[in-house]
Design a protein that fits this description.
Elements: E1 3-9, E2 13-20, E3 25-32, E4 44-45, H1 47-65, E5 72-79, E6 85-87, E7 97-98, H2 106-116, H3 118-125, H4 134-144, H5 146-151, E8 154-156, H6 158-167, E9 171-173, H7 174-177, E10 183-184, E11 189-190, H8 192-198, E12 207-209, E13 214-217, H9 220-226, E14 233-235, E15 238-239, H10 240-247, E16 254-260, E17 264-270, E18 282-285, E19 292-298, H11 302-312, H12 314-323, H13 327-336, E20 346-348, E21 366-368, H14 376-400, E22 405-411, H15 418-428, E23 432-433, H16 441-452, H17 459-466, H18 477-506
Parallel strand pairs: 1-5, 5-15, 9-12, 16-22, 22-23
Antiparallel strand pairs: 1-2, 2-3, 4-7, 6-8, 10-11, 13-14, 16-17, 17-19, 18-19, 20-21
Helix pairs in contact: 1-6, 2-3, 2-4, 10-16, 11-14, 12-13, 13-14, 14-15, 15-18
Length: about 500
C-alpha cells in the first residue's frame, strides 16, 4: 500500500492525518498548544510548541495506524499564514512567533506605503499592507527589538519551521509566501524592489517553490524523533486556505468555496491574474502551479454566532448539555421559526472590524431595526443572515473582478447547518454543496505530496480522483428575491455609520 501524510499547523493545534492514495483517512491526531497575548491586540506562540505537536502527532498516527513508514510516499505541510518566525545562526527561535491575528503593526504598514508607494506596492504584491501580514512584523521587530533583528539569520512561516525541523531546508512555497507582503505575486518570486525599499536582506528569506514541488526529504535525525523513514519527500504544501482549496477540489476555474468558521472566506480559483485596485480582497498564488486565487474575508463569521451563544444563550447551552446535542442545533431550530429578514431585523457582523469590502478596523457590529416584538430566534436568524450578507459582499467583489463560480462548496462549522447552507444558496443565487470528506487542509497538502511523489499527474487530477461532493442545495428564486431586498438595505448600514464608528474608536 501507498500512503500520504498531511500536517496542518493551526492556531490552536497541529493536526496530523494519514491517508491512502484514494483519499481514505487512515488515522488522525491533533495536539494543542497555548497562544500568548502579552498586550492587547498582540498574539504570539512558541514555534517549538508547533514542532512538539507535529512530532507527537506523527508518532501517534504511525502508532494508531500500524502503517510501515516506508510506505508513506510523501508529506505535505499546511498551516496558519503570515506568522513571523525569526531564527538565529543555530536555527533557534529568537523570540515568540508573531501570529496572523496580531495587530500591532499599524505604523509599520504606513511605513511600507511611504517606502514603496501605495499603488506600486499593490501592483507588485497584489494586496494592501495589512497588520496581519509578515512584512510589517519584520519592520516592527527591527524598530522595537533591534538586538533581536541583528541576530536574525532566517525568517520562516509557521509550516516552514516544521519543514526545517523535518528536512533541514529553508524553503517556502508561493501560496504562503503571497501572504508575507514581500512576494511579487504576478511573477511568483520575491520582489527585489520591495525588499530593497524596505531594507530587508533577501538572504533572510527562504527559497520559494511551487506547492507540489519536493523541497527536501526527512533527515535521519528527524526520522529518529518522529518515526518517519529517512528520505521521505516533503513538498512545498500550501497556506491554510490554499490547502483547503485542494482538499475541496477548488483547483480549476468556475469553482469556489465559502468557509463559515471563526472567520469567513469566499475563495475562488482563477487561471488569470485578477487584482482589486482597492485592495478589498486578497490575490495570492494558489497551490496549482501557474494559477492564482482570489479571496474575500469576513473577520467574524462563526465568531458572531459564537458571541451570541456565549453571552445570550446560557439556558440553551445547559439544555444542549442535558440533551447531548450541540447548542448550535437548538439555536438554529429557533432561527428557523423566524422568516427571511428576521421580521425586519438586520445584523452587521463587524465584531472585529471588517476586511472585505470595507478594510475598516474601527467598524463594529450592530443590530438595526430592533423592536420590542423581536424574539431570540429573530436575533439568531439576523446574525446568521448578517454573516451571509457579509459573505455575499465578498462574492460580489469577486464577481466585479470577473472571477465567477458555477457552484459554491460550503466548509467550516457553519456549513454543517442546512439552514445556513440554504441561506447561502438563496442569498448568493448559487448552488451550494459540501464535500464528502471533512479533512480540508490536511487532505489538500497530502494530495500535493502525492503529486510531488508521482502518485497523481497534477493537482486537478488528484482532486478528480479523491475529492467528492454531495448533492447540491439549489437556490430558491422566490427566497432569493426576498434576501435581495434585505441585502439592499444591509448595504446602506455601513456607509451610514462609518463616521460614527470612527468617532467611537477615538473615545
Amino acid at each position: 500500500m501507498n500512503y500520504l501524510l498531511g500536517l496542518d499547523v493551526g492556531t490552536s493545534g497541529t493536526k496530523t492525518a494519514l491517508f491512502d492514495t484514494s483519499g481514505g483517512l487512515i488515522a488522525s491526531r491533533t495536539f494543542e498548544y497555548p497562544l500568548s497575548q502579552p498586550q492587547n491586540g498582540w498574539a504570539e506562540q512558541d514555534p517549538r510548541d508547533w514542532w512538539r505537536a507535529a512530532s507527537d502527532g506523527i508518532r501517534a498516527v504511525l502508532a494508531d495506524s500500524g502503517v510501515d513508514p516506508q510506505e508513506i510516499r510523501g508529506i505535505g505541510l499546511s498551516g496558519q499564514m503570515h506568522s513571523l518566525v525569526m531564527l538565529d545562526a543555530h536555527d533557534e527561535p529568537l523570540r515568540p512567533a508573531i501570529l496572523w491575528c496580531d495587530g500591532r503593526t499599524g505604523a509599520e504598514c504606513e511605513d511600507i506605503y511611504d517606502a514603496v508607494g501605495r499603488a506600486r506596492y499593490l501592483e507588485i504584491t497584489a494586496n494592501p499592507a495589512l497588520t496581519g501580514f509578515t512584512a510589517g512584523k519584520i519592520l516592527w521587530v527591527r524598530k522595537h527589538q533591534p538586538e533581536i533583528y541583528e541576530k536574525c539569520r532566517h525568517i520562516l512561516l509557521a509550516k516552514d519551521y516544521i519543514r526545517l525541523k523535518l528536512t533541514g531546508e529553508y524553503a517556502t512555497e508561493v501560496s504562503d509566501a503571497s501572504g508575507m507582503g514581500l512576494l511579487d505575486v504576478p511573477r511568483r518570486q520575491w520582489s527585489d524592489e520591495v525588499l530593497t525599499k524596505l531594507g530587508i536582506d533577501k538572504a533572510l528569506l527562504a527559497r520559494v517553490y511551487e506547492s507540489p514541488e519536493i523541497t527536501g526529504t526527512v533527515t535521519r535525525q528527524a526520522a529518529e524523533i518522529t518515526g518517519l523513514a529517512a528520505g521521505t519527500p516533503v513538498v512545498g504544501g500550501a497556506g491554510d486556505n490554499a490547502a483547503a482549496a485542494v482538499g475541496t477540489g477548488v483547483v480549476v476555474d468556475g469553482r469556489a468555496f465559502a468557509t463559515i468558521g471563526t472567520s469567513g472566506v469566499v475563495f475562488a480559483h482563477t487561471s488569470e491574474l485578477a487584482v482589486d485596485p482597492q485592495g478589498r480582497v486578497h490575490t495570492f498564488c494558489c497551490a496549482v502551479p501557474g494559477a492564482w486565487h482570489v479571496m474575500g474575508v469576513t473577520l467574524a463569521a462563526g465568531a458572531s454566532l459564537q458571541w451570541f451563544r456565549n453571552n445570550l444563550c446560557p439556558d440553551i447551552i445547559e439544555d444542549a448539555r442535558v440533551r447531548g446535542v450541540d447548542p448550535y442545533v437548538l439555536m438554529t431550530e429557533q432561527a428557523a421559526r423566524s422568516p427571511i429578514g428576521a421580521n425586519r431585523l438586520l445584523f452587521t457582523p463587524y465584531l472585529m472590524g471588517e476586511r472585505t469590502p470595507h478594510l475598516d478596523p474601527d467598524c463594529r457590529g450592530a443590530f438595526t431595526g430592533l423592536s420590542a416584538m423581536h424574539t431570540r430566534g429573530d436575533l439568531i436568524r439576523a446574525v446568521m443572515e448578517g454573516v451571509t450578507y457579509s459573505l455575499r459582499d465578498c462574492a460580489e467583489t469577486l464577481r466585479a473582478m470577473g472571477v465567477t463560480s458555477r457552484e459554491l462548496i460550503a466548509c467550516g462549522g457553519g456549513a454543517t447547518s442546512p439552514l445556513w447552507r440554504g441561506m447561502l444558496a438563496d442569498a448568493l443565487h448559487c448552488p451550494v454543496t459540501t464535500t464528502v470528506g471533512k479533512e480540508g487542509p490536511a487532505l489538500g497538502v497530502a494530495l500535493l505530496a502525492g503529486v510531488g511523489a508521482g502518485v497523481y499527474d497534477s493537482v486537478p487530477a488528484a482532486c478528480d480522483a479523491v475529492v467528492h461532493t454531495g448533492t447540491p442545495m439549489l437556490p430558491d428564486e422566490q427566497a432569493g428575491a426576498a434576501y435581495d431586498a434585505f441585502y439592499d438595505v444591509y448595504r446602506t448600514i455601513y456607509p451610514a455609520l462609518r463616521a460614527s464608528y470612527a468617532a467611537l474608536a477615538k473615545l
